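Provenance and format

Records in this collection were gathered into a single text stream. Each protein contributes a sequence line and a token line. The two records reproduced below are adjacent in the stream.
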Amino acid sequence: MAAIEVGGTAFGYDEAGEGPAVVLLHAALGDRRMWDAQFTALAATHRVIRYDRRGFGETRGETGEHAHYEDLLALLDARGIEQAALVGASMGGACALDAALAAPERITRLVLLGSGLTGQPWPDHMLADIADLTAALFPDGRLARYQAREREVDPADVRAMAEANIRYLVAGPDRDISVLPPEMVARVREMCEQVYRHDWTAPQWTERIPDTRHRLAEITTPALVVIGTSDARGLVELSAHLAESLPQAEFVELADTGHLPSMERPEEVSALLRKFL
């Protein structure tokens, strides 16, 4: 394990290259391995950092109260980085936006791929889809018991939860999983199973969550908003909202692409990043 200690917590971490700093922030479906292609591609011209956020991958979720964007800024401090571009996928994008509000002078560029937004409730149709999926998988309510750490975890349930995420988000609600490269599906499955094994067994901690949704107009950092058109409709709608609300945003739609374009279309995403950064 490569690690960097920040505030008493060891974060799984990789760094390569020289030049302007870029930090890659992973989605909640996985960990820093989702950036394998971009980590290598960008290291030719940039100082690239990727790490596992608190509670993911090789980073423990310590008890207490924490904020992901504060961890990010503390990590920059620990590496002596005054300014960096942030590339965030899904909830990694939400973390990037939070950091851009907390320390705007430190963030030079924002790239948001299928981004979340802290404080923004998911639309009713997306909540209904997720409720239907989880009800089908856990009709006896054992999901709530897993989340409360009240039940020993069945590996079959971990696998089923990962598969549901792959079908609904990674492929997208209107595509079959067979459209994805098999090696990509295997890697996402491995990461996502680890997410749920950890989420249902590790010590619980409280995340301090800022409300960023009403402050987007304050973020004047140049931004690139990227969305796969086959992603869940709520995320497609959210990316369009981000592109409209951020004062200096470019908007790129990737046709026939799901929630993890960095893995589904690695060369195209790497090229977009090199051009924007």
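Adjacent record:
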Amino acid sequence: MSEQLFKVNGIELCAESFGNSEHPVILLIMGAQASMVWWEKDFCQRLADKGHFIIRYDNRDVGRSAIYEPGNPQYTFEDMADDAIHILDHFGIEKAHIVGMSMGGMLTQILAMRHPERVLTVSLLSTSNFAPDLPPMEERVLDYFSNATATDWSNEASVIAFTVGKWKVLAGSKHPFDVNRIYDLAEEEVKRSRNMASMNNHGLVTGGESYLVRTGDIDVPALIIHGTEDPIIPYEHGVALARVVPGSVLLTLEGTGHELHHEDWDTIIDAISNHTTIQGSYT
């Protein structure tokens, strides 16, 4: 169906759904500085075709959802987690399976503890609880993002070039980097955005610490998916998360970076579908 723009507590949020609304619900939460377009439509439809109702949405400061002045986000990670609940409320959904990537995975962990009555299962992709003893992101990622200030955020071509370059830096070695596919998605993101510069606010958002230090309290079935060549949240983070979250299952993607590469889709979609189908009841 087409995108829906709605307002909750004065905050505009944009969401889109796929599949039969009578089927079990999977809510997809994307990572920092990335709108919902990076949950590609074909990915969403293929997951829906497995017998699920899929919802993707724009977090604050990306896509068509509410934006804030660059450098001044007026919200916390707890607010962003609550936005996910507002999405479910808008669709009239009591409980859902939550799938989060990167920052979206962090929000998913917060949701599982902050709103446990609304969460059936969690699937955590390329994410972490950011325990202090875990390895940092690779220098090449830091170097690339340090150049973000040189990007002309008012120029579409400049922003697209930065976005394509970002995903290239985050890619693993197993699969070829599909520059044309990434370019098309970056172009779509720019054309949908209210203000691309606002996405950098995600790097300034605070909060969530009181939840991330107790991820061992997560009390729903957890699937953890992580690439061995993730340069921004190294694979060790996924391994550590799988040790801490009770009863979790770790799916390792050999040679994959911080990405949802289409050549991994079959593996990821099957894993999420199986995890959400066999775990728990749907209400």
